[in-house]
Amino acid sequence: MTTQWAISEGLVDYPQAVRAMESRAAAIAAGDAPELVWLLEHPPLYTRGASAQEGDLKDPTRFPVFDSQRGGQFTYHGPGQRVAYVMLDLTRRGRDVKQFVCSLENWIIGTLAGFNIKGERRAGRVGVWVDRTRPGGQLREDKIAAIGVRLKRWVSYHGISLNVEPDLSHFGGITPCGVSDPGLGVTSLADLGYLVSMHEVDIALKAAFEEVFGAVERVAPPLR
Q1: pLDDT value at position 134?
Q2: Are 223 and 14 in contact (CB under 8 A)?
Q3: What is the mean pLDDT of the chain?
């Protein structure tokens, strides 16, 4: 069964998106719907993952804060960030959670390679990072994409977020993903000097996804 690929225009309400995603994941588990990857943007907000520490929410009044069933800690979503909700059936893809997360990282790394950016994984730090250490300087690595997924009946939901051109100051209201080391920060394609459109990023995401997970078919998004 071909994986479906949907893209929403404009900003999508977070609670509505979560309800639509959970409904679709349940239908996939029941064998009533095909897999779906859903690309969208949210209004500015913070999400609290299952492992979040309350001290990492530095400014609870800055943006709405939503509890999330995904793994991980606090994250930011907002305009200029491409969120990809990934509803895949791991029963037919092999019930290997570690390999699945590795495949998600490979997807992001392949997407970045399309723009000649070297994305890297780091042991103990889920997500994709860019090494910005200058010769002879102190360590500087910035996170460009986050990963936070949940599995229910071996169907994944939630997914990844790739920073294209968000307002990076919005990350200041949290300790992103619990990472507070002074040598580690957050970056984006624009921050790295790559001024590309969301449409160009979507093309790169699709090409890299098909390399890792297989062919997709474009469909209308769950929410209009």
Answers
A1: 82
A2: no
A3: 93
Tell me the per-residue pLDDT of 143-197, one tens digit each, with 9 for 90 and over.
Answer: 999 999 999 999 999 999 999 999 999 999 998 765 667 788 999 999 999 999 9
Which of 191, 215, 219, 223 has its CA nearest to residue 1?
A: 215
Segment 207-212 mean pLDDT: 98
- Which amino acid does the sequence have at 100? F
Tokens 């071909």 locate to 2
* Residues assigned a catalytic role: 177
CB 196 within 8 A of CB 173: no
Q: In what order do the strands lie in the sheet with 65-67?
A: 65-67, 45-48, 74-77
Phi, psi (5° rounding) for residue 89?
A: -90, 100
Q: Are 34 and 1 in contact (CB under 8 A)?
A: yes
Q: Tell me the mean pLDDT in the region 215-220.
A: 98
Helix or strand holding residue 18 (H, E): helix 14-29
User: Which tokens in the block code for residue 48?
Assistant: 């609290």
Comparing C-alpha atoms, which of 205, 100, 208, 194 is closest to residue 147?
Answer: 100
Q: Rounded distance, CA 15 to CA 21, Å?
A: 10
Q: Cβ(40)–Cβ(17) under 8 Å? A: yes
Do 82 and 202 touch, CB atoms closer than 8 A? yes
